[in-house]
Design a protein that fits this description.
The complex is a heterodimer. Chain A has 7 helices and 7 strands, in the order αααβαβββαβαββα. Chain A is of the alpha/beta class. In chain A, helix 4 links the parallel strand 1 and strand 2. In chain A, helix 2 packs across helix 7 and helix 3 packs across helix 7. The longest helix of chain A is centred in the C-terminal third of the chain and has 20 residues. Chain B folds into 2 domains: 120 residues, NADH:ubiquinone oxidoreductase Nqo5 subunit (Beta Polymerase, domain 2); 244 residues, Cytochrome-c3 Hydrogenase, chain B (Orthogonal Bundle), CATH 1.10.645.10. In chain B, strand 12 and strand 13 form a beta hairpin. At the A-B interface, helix 1, strand 1, helix 4 and helix 5 of A face helix 4, helix 5, helix 8 and helix 9 of B.
């Protein structure tokens, strides 16, 4: 183990520079994020991930955000274990009827101010599962959505862009008089 | 005594069911099959319904003979297989929830996928209105002094899929774990009904995100079996390339994640880097990190070019360079071994009874691997070994994955050496008459089964059976007597699919 750790000291880090944030996502957020709330948040977001019925593809890519290449914690983005600790609910999947109640309860367990980020094509409108007897539809059918990150699944860099735009908005509005 | 296969052939054999035979049988043969399963003379591959029929796929593991028996249920009931052979229980509960067919004599008639939130009952059979009042789900009892219950989920603490676990513990020790699943039920088999083949293939690729290649592979093979499509040779090689890349990425991720659940983060960090390398190589080579929608009925949609080949070879070289040091680190870290050795032991007898596939079966003495046992192309032309261990603990499940990573590296080398030039996709005109096809493909988690009936270019019925159906119940057995704190570790070492199971 010492050898591996020692090597890591001298090797260039895997971590890559931050991606530029997506303009469309920023505009979407500008309207969503309230000024007062941004002041309180600073440059830090605690995220609670909720799978509301996804195929697990989005979860794999959200997981990848924590690997050494993307290393989301350097941006102040942190995945937390409880909705009680979260600023952001990151919801994936078409919301299934069997998960609707759990999603609502998770939303209500998250303290204000809070934002909901819907990840993946299914999360917008149910995607290819729309119309099923077992599916409610997109996330916005159940809880209000502030930002949607499309893709099937969106690659980690796209998810990161979306989240950074959320932080950018926060920083800008704080520096505003 | 006549063998089961002989008896089934006495039944009315269905025309145009490929590649294995399917027979309509009567209740006595159906029960005989249940008894054969109970005696361990053959294994259950799948059990699924139609509005007034039940089907059961079985395999004789010695001869790799596979057959499907079907029983008409004019009275909306059939003799339970689960009362002889427990692995069928949850499948029967699911058949009841979806089709309303009753398994007579079943020791467990509780609902499974139906949480009484669909607004309807028996959505794939004769629909009726949902019950006005949801009756609470009765968990199995555990009685004794000082027992307490811990309810976990459906929303879990990590970035994982939803499901409910009900622990009964005595102090720290788990006395009983009961799973309650079905939260991610999307009604995929309902959406399949009437879908054209292209849409159905997309749905199949979204049953379980981590096995998107395996599902698209199995679905495509089932369609090809039904319509007698001959897949071009280059596509056959490329499919195995995708499948092995998927296996590699998942195993690397799992090995790290299991160590992470034993609080050994270093392994997780390094394994995640290797996993990311594989995903990026797949992205550059084939345009999608998880290689979704690339295998389609008839062939594949993406080709391998020189750049793709180079990038895959580079990723493989990097794994060969870095992975052995990680395996050594795993093997030589006493504090880590202390968590994984002898934890969550699955007894070989249970793995055999449930016909558990993948690393779960192979860590508990069951050597079945569809790539070897059924030798579907191109695996009939490839050299590889199927690692088997008998300990059945978390450690054994890690080692099976380690060995399979090594085997996949070698397989990808062989594929890249031998992949031939040629067309990527064959087409076939849809037939008006019904055609049935079936396929079993080895995903990273175990054998994925797809059965379907096509008519006039559309899916009339398609059933997709995830390996997790026969693995989830074993987790309940493996955790017994372990401490609650080891559950995440055991769970990750099983890594069953929620979405694949819930459909």
């Amino acid at each position: 183990m010492r050898k591996l750790l020692f090597e890591s000291l001298f090797r260039r880090p895997f971590t890559e520079p931050a991606p530029s944030t997506d303009d469309a996502a920023i505009t979407e957020l500008a309207t969503a994020v309230g000024l007062a709330a941004r002041r309180r948040l600073g440059r830090s977001l605690s995220i609670r991930e909720v799978d509301a019925g996804s195929c697990n593809g989005c979860e794999l890519e959200i997981h990848a955000l924590s690997n050494a290449y993307y290393d989301v914690e350097r941006f102040g983005l942190r995945f937390v274990a409880s909705p009680r600790h979260a600023d952001v609910l990151m919801v994936t999947g078409p919301v299934t009827r069997n998960m609707r109640y759990a999603l609502e309860r998770t939303y209500h367990a998250t303290p204000n101010p809070k934002w909901v980020v819907a990840v993946g094509d299914c999360a917008r409108d149910g995607g290819c599962f729309a119309g099923s007897y077992a599916v409610v539809g997109g996330v916005s059918q159940v809880v209000p959505v502030d930002l949607h990150i499309p893709g099937c699944p969106p690659p980690p860099i796209r998810i990161l862009q979306g989240l950074l735009s959320l932080l950018d908005q926060t920083a800008k509005s704080v520096s505003r008089p | 005594m006549p063998s089961l296969i002989d008896l089934m052939l006495e039944g009315r054999q269905i025309q145009h069911h490929a590649p294995w035979p399917r027979s309509m049988v009567d209740a006595s043969v159906w029960n005989f099959a249940g008894n054969e399963l109970a005696q361990g003379r053959c294994s259950l591959l799948g059990l699924w319904g139609e509005p007034s029929t039940v089907h059961m796929a079985i395999v004789n593991e010695q001869t790799a003979q596979i057959a499907v028996v079907s029983l008409d249920c004019p009275n909306r009931s059939y003799p339970s297989i689960g009362m002889h052979h427990l692995p069928a229980l949850r499948l029967e509960r699911a058949i009841h929830d979806l089709f309303g067919l009753v398994a007579e004599g079943s020791p467990d008639p509780r609902p499974w996928l139906d949480h009484n939130r669909w607004g309807t009952r028996f959505p794939l059979g004769d629909r009726i209105d949902a019950l006005s009042q949801a009756s609470p789900y009765r968990f199995l009892p555990a009685e004794g002094d000082g027992l307490h219950q811990i309810a976990v989920g459906p929303v879990h603490a990590g970035i994982i899929e939803p499901g409910h676990f009900r622990f009964t513990a005595s102090g720290e020790t788990v006395v009983r774990l009961e799973e309650r699943l079905g939260y991610t039920h999307k009604g995929i088999e309902g959406l399949m009904v009437g879908a054209d083949i292209e849409r159905a293939a997309q749905l199949a690729g979204r049953v379980s995100g981590d096995s998107t290649v395996a599902y698209a592979f199995a679905f495509s093979r089932a369609v090809e079996a039904a319509l007698q499509i001959v897949v071009p040779d280059r596509a056959i090689w490329l499919r195995a390339l995708f499948a092995e890349l998927e296996r590699l990425a998942n195993h690397l991720g799992d090995i790290g994640a299991i160590c992470n659940d034993a609080s050994f983060v270093l392994m997780h960090a390094f394994c995640s880097v290797l996993r990311e390398n594989v995903l990026r190589a797949s992205d550059v080579a084939f345009g999608h990190r998880l290689m979704r929608d690339i295998i389609v009925p008839g062939g594949v949609t993406r080709d391998l070019n020189d750049e793709g080949r180079k990038i895959i070879e580079l990723a493989l070289d990097n794994i060969r360079l870095r992975f052995p040091a990680l395996v050594e680190l795993y093997d030589n870290t006493a504090s880590l071994q202390d968590r994984t050795v002898d934890t969550g032991v699955l007894k070989p007898a249970l793995a055999k009874q449930y016909a558990a596939g993948g690393y779960i079966g192979r860590a508990s003495g069951r050597s079945f691997d569809a790539r070897k046992a059924l030798a579907y192309p191109p695996y009939d032309r490839l050299r590889f070994e199927v690692p088997v261990l008998n300990e059945g603990d978390v450690n054994a499940r890690v080692w099976i994955r380690v060995r399979e990573v090594e085997q996949s590296l070698s397989l990808i080398d062989q594929i890249l050496d031998r992949v031939s030039e040629g067309p990527l996709r064959a087409t076939a005109s849809p037939l008006f008459e019904p055609r049935e096809g079936m396929a079993i493909v080895e995903g990273f988690r175990g054998d994925v089964l797809v059965w379907l009936r096509l008519r006039d270019g559309r899916v009339e019925r398609c059933h997709l059976r995830d390996p997790s159906w026969f693995q989830w119940p074993l987790l309940e057995a493996a955790i017994e007597g372990n401490i609650v704190a080891d559950f995440p570790l055991c769970n990750k070492s099983f890594n069953c699919s929620y979405s694949g199971h819930d459909l």
